[in-house]
Specification:
There is one protein chain. By secondary structure, the protein is α/β, with parallel strands linked by helices. It has two domains: about 70 residues, Roll (Urease, subunit C, domain 1), CATH 2.30.40; about 290 residues, Metal-dependent hydrolases (TIM Barrel).
Length: about 375
């Protein structure tokens, strides 16, 4: 049965709107319109669920150690409970056989709820900027990766590949973009000039700005400065640990084009899982909200897109609709999926309602008491 519901506010993918209602058929949103008199009120802000392009794990599962369809489903389920309805499982630096196995699994998941593609972060990175990635598994871009990526793209799977310009030729970057791969620059010690050349070759994105890349200084812009000054889409972690809140705010203000910064969680297995996990034969432990390896260095993040949005609005101080665009609209645009930021025609299971202070959320289906 068609019914109208009127939230306090509604995010339509671009702006927060008031006085707008949705009409549903019990499965999907079929219309947006000015509030009719018979609409049922909903407390809070109605919005498409979050989009996350960098998710290493969740629910106690790491993609690197469970590169299977069941592993991906567990990660999807863990993050869906936190309002992220569309995500890219992310494989960090590993052996070629792991990527081959994962590609086989991904090819069976084309229509899986919440799965929007694969992010391959490494192994083609700079050893000096590897972060927690395993040094012994880093290698230059090679035919083995091209083969896996080509298989995925031939099947219509969206692929994001994080690499360092030092680990690939500019011709290879152009070849990847010719395949439709979203080339993202990260884990790099490149100069600003090298970054510009990689962008000119076709790279359109940057991976977790400020982290694992050459810093910006007064006389050397480095990878950080090059990305901030570019028109590339650029991800950033907003958990209070990876990047200072003041630097997140500065980077957002400094971009020459609006809506090029997007939020990523860089989440690990502890989201929705136990407080430690194994990676590269090491135990990674959650300590005071930080994930650290045996050396005490950061090893991914224990956060969600929902928490990132709340922090963007709170300590960082951005407008609510800007934060929502960073967690929904901009990552969707980055991978060519603007539909992920739309409400009309959207399944109800992909829509959430944020509390008035944006601190908590509920699935729309729970509020409407539908499956």
């Amino acid at each position: 049965m068609n019914r109208w519901f009127a939230p306090d506010a509604l995010f339509d993918g671009q702006t927060l709107r008031h006085g707008v209602a949705i009409r549903t058929d019990g499965q999907r949103i079929i219309e947006l319109s000015d509030n009719p008199p018979d609409a049922t009120p909903l407390r809070g802000t109605l919005t498409p669920g979050f989009v996350d392009l960098q998710v290493n794990g969740g629910g106690g599962v790491m993609l690197n150690t469970s590169p299977t369809s069941d592993g991906i489903r567990a990660i999807l389920a863990a993050h869906h409970r936190h309002g992220t309805v569309a995500l890219m499982p992310t494989l960090i630096t590993d052996y070629p056989d792991v990527l081959d196995t994962l590609a086989d699994a991904v090819l069976t998941l084309h229509d899986e709820r919440g799965f929007i593609g694969l992010h391959i972060e490494g192994p083609h990175i700079a050893p000096a900027r590897r972060g927690t990635h395993c040094a012994g598994r880093i290698r230059p871009l090679d035919d083995r990766t091209f083969t896996s990526v080509s298989r995925l793209r031939a099947a219509g799977i969206i692929v994001m590949l994080t690499l360092a310009p030092e680990a690939a030729t500019f011709a290879q970057i152009a070849q990847l973009t010719g395949l439709g791969v979203v080339v993202s620059l990260g884990h790099t010690d490149a100069t600003a000039e090298e970054m510009h050349l990689a962008i000119n070759a076709g790279a359109t994105c940057g991976t977790h700005l400020f982290n694992a890349m050459s810093p910006m200084t007064g006389r050397a812009p480095g990878a950080v400065g090059a990305l901030i000054n570019s028109s590339c889409y650029t991800g950033i972690i907003c958990d209070g640990h990876h990047v200072a809140d003041e630097m997140v705010a500065l980077a957002i203000r400094a971009r020459p084009r609006p809506d090029r910064m997007f939020l990523v969680s860089d989440a690990m297995a502890t989201v929705g899982g136990p407080d430690q996990f194994r990676l590269y034969e090491q135990t990674i432990t959650l300590q005071g909200g930080r994930l650290v390896n045996a050396d005490g260095n950061l090893a991914g993040a224990h956060t969600t897109q929902a928490e990132g949005v709340a922090r963007l609005i709170g300590p960082v101080g951005v407008a609510r609709e800007t934060a929502l665009r960073m967690a929904i609209t901009t990552p969707a645009a980055c991978i060519g999926r603007p539909d992920l930021a739309e409400l009309a025609g959207r399944p109800l299971r992909d829509v959430i309602v944020l509390s008035p202070d944006f601190a908590t959320h509920q699935p729309l289906t729970a509020l409407l008491d539908v499956g």
